[in-house]
Amino acid sequence: MSGFSGFMAFAVTARHASFARAGRELGITASTVAKRILRLEEQLGVKLFHRTTRQVTLTSDGEALYARCEKVLADIDEIESLASGASGAPRGQLRINMPITYGKRVVMPRLAQLLSQHPELQLDVRLSDSFCDLIKDGMDAAIRVGPLDDSRLAARRIDWQHLVLCASPSYLQKRRKPTRPDQLAQHSFVVFRNPTSGRERPVQLQVEGRLHEFHPAARAVVNDGEGMVEAARHGVGLTQVPRYMADAALADGSLIELLAAHKPPAQPINLIWPGNRLLPARMRLLIETLSAPG
């Protein structure tokens, strides 16, 4: 295929932001990688990378080409995997995006076990609470909380997210413990700010069978769930976080659950992937692994 080696060198360099790391993955020297990309730029008539002595970064033309290249290369990889036979051992790389705390505490132990059982698998895990465009960012799969609104994606529910309202004993010694939802207006809160939208997440409660949301008085605004738990443990205020973030603190008594009878309905946690692609063996294995009971 004419020019294929140039596109491959470009895509791997863009993924690693390094000629040297791209060369190691491709089994060639960094200078050969650079020469292939230079020929590709001359062929296309555009500059694909900004180059300095320390790093290479994509230009706007490079970003557009990278999104297309990743999809094409992923399709080629999928075809090769399928051609090797469904009964063959899963192999190749899985690129997965997932929320930071859920990824570290819940998903990574399962992925580590998956790697131990399948030595030809590799993972590229992106831990982030920011929004990821699965297709544009060239990811194989992602984990998201809540309903899905993108018809291009396929999904499998892998878990449920339960929110818990809690506070530390030291805070509750200073402020009266709330026993009804209407008493929350008298309290300070540690609130989550979405790192993508910049919006603060409202507190959610179920009152008389209906979901109510409100924006409390924020004593602290934090863009990380673990940071919210730590602030609440040290008496800054009430906070509402997923239960998996607060389990340890609730167990050791450094946080106390509040208004348990008014917990909001659980939200689905889904594994999603591009719905218009063939599924290689490694992707089917990932779906089965994360869908299995923990």
> What value does the Rg take, in angstroms?
23 Å
Low-confidence stretches: none
Biggest β-sheet strands, sense, barrel: 5 strands, mixed
Q: Find the CATH topology of the largest domain.
A: D-Maltodextrin-Binding Protein, domain 2
Report the average pLDDT across residues: 88
CATH superfamily of the largest domain: Periplasmic binding protein-like II
One letter per element, helices H and strands E, the order comes to: HHHEEHEHEEEEHEEEEHEHEEH
List the domain count as a whole number.
3
Overall CATH class of the largest domain: Alpha Beta
In short:
Helix content is 39%, strand content 25%.
Explain what the structure shows.
It is a single chain. This protein has helices at residues 4-16, 19-26, 30-44, 60-83, 100-117, 169-174, 225-233, 243-252, 281-291; strands at residues 49-51, 56-58, 92-98, 121-127, 141-145, 153-161, 163-167, 189-192, 203-207, 210-214, 218-222, 238-242, 256-258, 267-274. With 294 residues, the chain is of the alpha/beta class. It has 3 domains: 1-83, Arc Repressor Mutant, subunit A (Orthogonal Bundle); 89-160 and 266-294, 3-Layer(aba) Sandwich (D-Maltodextrin-Binding Protein, domain 2), CATH 3.40.190; 163-265, D-Maltodextrin-Binding Protein, domain 2 (3-Layer(aba) Sandwich), CATH 3.40.190. It has a 5-stranded mixed beta sheet with strand order 4-3-5-14-6, covered by helices on one side. It has a 5-stranded mixed beta sheet with strand order 11-8-12-7-13. Helix 1 (4-16) crosses helix 2 (19-26) and helix 1 packs across helix 3. The protein is elongated and about 70 Å long. The two termini are 45 Å apart. The model has no long low-confidence stretch (mean pLDDT 88).
